[in-house]
Amino acid sequence: MLETQKLQDWANKWQGKNILVVGDLMLDEYIIGTAERISPEAPVPVILCEKRTYGAGGAANTALNLLSLGAKVFVCGLIGNDWSGEKLKEILKESGVDIIGILIDHHRPTTLKTRIVAQTQQVARVDVESREPLNGSMEASLRGVARELGRECDAIVVSDYAKGVVTKGLISGLLELRGEILLVAGPKPKNIHHFVGFDYLSLNRSEAVASVNGVKSFFDAGRELSSRLEVQGLVITLGGEGCALFAKGEQLAQLPALRVQVYDVAGAGDTFLAALTLGLVAGCNFVDAAKVATLAAAAVVRKVGVATTNTDEMLQLLKSAI
Question: Rounded distance, CA 1 to CA 173, Å?
Fold first, then answer.
């Protein structure tokens, strides 16, 4: 268990730190209403829309989590030349995120995830996206922007959702800053081999197992990945079971989850990644940074929808758990 004074001290140290988030930017749309009847056209409910809301998803949600915790945040990624992209930029800019690193790709749409909710239950999700890798010129542009912005930051966080933005070329550009800037990422299995040499990685259980051929346990996956990827530390999040930490082919620790009422786990991985990064930037050792991240994730799963947390909420939660 963390000590409240230590958490406050670390939080004071990470306030105002410059963090660059690179990755797949998304716009989340929620259509909220009431299911009144079954459609005469097909056996599906007819939803009377009562409210439509928008939020930042994917790497953009990681950025908002870092911002909420007190960092100064820059975002580097792609949007399409469309209304969804403009809306996402508006949300980020109004929140206080620096959007100078967002480029427009005229050959792909902004990733849009539309969730249809009736009587508090999600009944469908509609995705608009491209999963094609970036073309050469766009990859070169994004790589150059990310590298230049990263030089001015205390850490770079790569939030990978396998939508084509996180390419080998982009990551190799960031790796040129290795040793100068803290490099942290949440990779997807199909891109895991790009991240050899990063400082710290965070995956969930299913992602970790899917990243290594022939293994069925997160324990074996963690040992293999932490050795093969030459990272300082690897976290595998385990949902209600907490998280497991690995380094140099060995398991360092397994931390329990904080017992809270869970309402929604959407976006909790983004929160974990953001808080882990800030803990490391503040000078925490790997285990303590993971404890900070576990606490932050516990704070957001108590909320409905993709959410963020802040230091005050974390301190209150920690005090109630002691």
Answer: 38
Strand, coil or helix: 100? strand
DSSP tag of 41: S
Angle at 225 between CA 191 and CA 238, to 5 degrees: 90
Q: Is the dihedral of CA 184, 186, 189, 190 positive or negative?
A: negative
Structural domain count, the chain = 1
| Whether 279 contacts 10, CB under 8 Å | yes
Domain that holds residue 259: 4-321
CATH code: domain of residue 55: 3.40.1190.20
- Alpha-carbon distances, residue 256 vs 56, 65, 93, 287, 309 (angstroms): 29, 22, 36, 12, 20
Answering whether pTM is above 0.85, one says yes
Q: Which amino acid appears at position 80 of this protein?
A: G
H/E run at residue 191: none
Which of the residues are catalytic? Answer: 270
Backbone angles phi, psi at 96, to 5 degrees: 115, 5
C-alpha to C-alpha distance for 239 and 297, rounded to whole angstroms: 10
How far apart, in whole angstroms, are the C-alpha atoms of residue 78 and residue 26? 9
Q: What angle do CA 219, 224, 226 make, to 5 degrees?
A: 95
- Grouped pLDDT means (10 residues each) for the chain, 322 residues: 90 97 97 94 95 95 96 98 98 98 96 93 94 93 97 97 95 96 97 97 96 94 96 94 95 87 70 97 96 91 76 89 68
Between CA 228 and CA 73 the distance in angstroms is: 31
Residue 36 dihedral angles phi and psi, to the nearest 5°: -95, -30
The answer to whether 147 and 177 have CB atoms below 8 angstroms apart is yes
- Comparing C-alpha atoms, which of 272, 271, 268, 316 is closest to residue 64? 271
CA distances from 234 to 66, 105, 135, 153, 187 (A): 20, 33, 30, 22, 11
- Long-range contact pairs involving 220-226 (C-beta distance under 8 Å, separation at least 24): 222/246, 222/251, 223/249, 223/250, 223/251, 224/249, 225/192, 225/201, 226/250
